[in-house]
Design a protein that fits this description.
- The protein is an alpha+beta fold.
- Helix content is 41%, strand content 18%.
- The protein has three domains: 163 residues, no CATH class; 53 residues; 78 residues, no CATH class.
- The chain has a six-stranded antiparallel beta sheet with strand order 1-3-2-5-6-4.
- Helix 7 crosses helix 9 and helix 8 crosses helix 9.
């Protein structure tokens, strides 16, 4: 499917590590072209913005316009919980701060130091870092390219979403739409699952409103699960190919109960520095990371629990494919280590 369609289908891709969405889509789409996705970011069809769970996601611009205002309560709560900034902002009227920062950030993207310097000059009696954090939580800010563009790097620079895509934010975003879009990507799922995925509360009323148009199931513990009637639900014995996932992947963060993908494994005994996980027949059976300096030949290390000979061959083969993709043809070796 087209890149934008895939990003939309997944309700965005978690992207606090700027290049993680590239591996996430490479593992999902045939013929994935990272440069084509980078162009979509540069052309503003895709944007990087803080939404669900207060984390950076790569979204289509159209989805960002309604998901960002819908997730505002998550970011407002973050503002009041921050260990350092919440005390510095106690009793501060933030309206003048936002009235000053909004047009400033709409003109052009600014780096963190640039924004803090402007705030310090305008509000010398207040903590500029705390004010910048308030802007991050209360204004719809996107990270501008070349941040998040394949093959490029740059410090974070932010600008307002509506000025960047030249469209207004949705004034009345729909929770029902969010619930149905979530199910299309992650169903069957429970009320607790979407609450965990979005970090928003109050889902029961939305779920009950949509119950007549959904199908329901019970998992092994008796929890009620919901899904769209026409969503694919393959037979449990359907084989799933080996897949390497980035450190933060929607698949592993889409549910409160992640045991469906854990395979009962524990990461105890694994080396630190995990870059991502490896699914073998749909469950996490290994973790992976790179060793060696960037922009040089590196080793892709896979630490795995006991696997069959056939699974070991499949994991090593896919590890070589990942190395070729991530290193853009630069030399990469694979090292397999069993966790005992």
């Amino acid at each position: 499917m087209p890149l934008s369609t895939a990003v939309e289908k997944l309700v965005g891709l978690q992207a606090q590590n700027p290049l993680d969405p590239y591996l996430a889509l490479w593992s999902r789409l045939e013929g994935f072209d990272p440069d084509a996705m980078g162009r979509l970011v540069t052309e503003r069809s895709l944007v990087r913005i803080t939404v669900m769970r207060g984390t950076i996601h790569l979204l289509t611009a159209d989805d960002a316009l309604w998901l960002r205002p819908l997730t505002q309560p998550v970011l407002t709560a973050e503002l009041s919980r921050h260990r350092d900034f919440a005390p510095a902002l106690a009793g501060v009227d933030l309206d003048p701060i936002l009235d000053f920062a909004r047009p400033l950030l709409s003109v052009r993207p600014l780096s963190g130091p640039q924004l803090r310097a402007a705030l310090a000059e305008r509000f010398p009696a207040l903590d500029p870092a705390a004010l910048a954090y308030a802007c991050r939580c209360l204004l719809p800010l996107v990270q501008a390219p070349p941040r998040g563009v394949w093959g490029k790097t740059r410090q974070v620079e932010v600008t307002t979403l509506d000025s960047w895509v030249e469209k207004p934010l949705d004034p009345a975003p729909s929770r029902t739409a969010m619930w149905l879009r979530y199910l299309a990507a992650f169903g069957p799922a429970s009320v607790t699952d979407i609450a965990n995925w979005s970090r928003l509360g109050g889902w029961r009323q939305v779920v009950e409103k949509t119950r007549p148009q959904l199908v329901t199931f019970r998992n092994e513990r008796g929890t009620e699960l919901f899904d769209l009637p026409d969503s694919p639900r393959p037979d449990p014995d359907t084989p799933a190919p080996v897949r390497f996932l980035p450190e933060y992947d929607n698949l592993l963060l889409g549910h409160a109960d992640r045991s469906r993908f854990s395979g009962g494994q524990s990461f105890v005994g694994a080396t630190r520095g995990i870059k991502g996980s490896v699914l073998v027949d749909g469950t996490g059976q290994a973790i992976w990371r790179f060793e060696g300096a960037k922009n040089h030949a590196r080793t892709l290390v896979v630490e795995h629990w006991p696997l069959s000979k056939a699974d070991l061959v499949a994991v090593e083969e896919e590890a070589n494919n990942v190395g070729l993709f991530w290193q853009s043809g630069m030399g990469t070796s694979v090292e397999m280590k069993e966790i005992r």
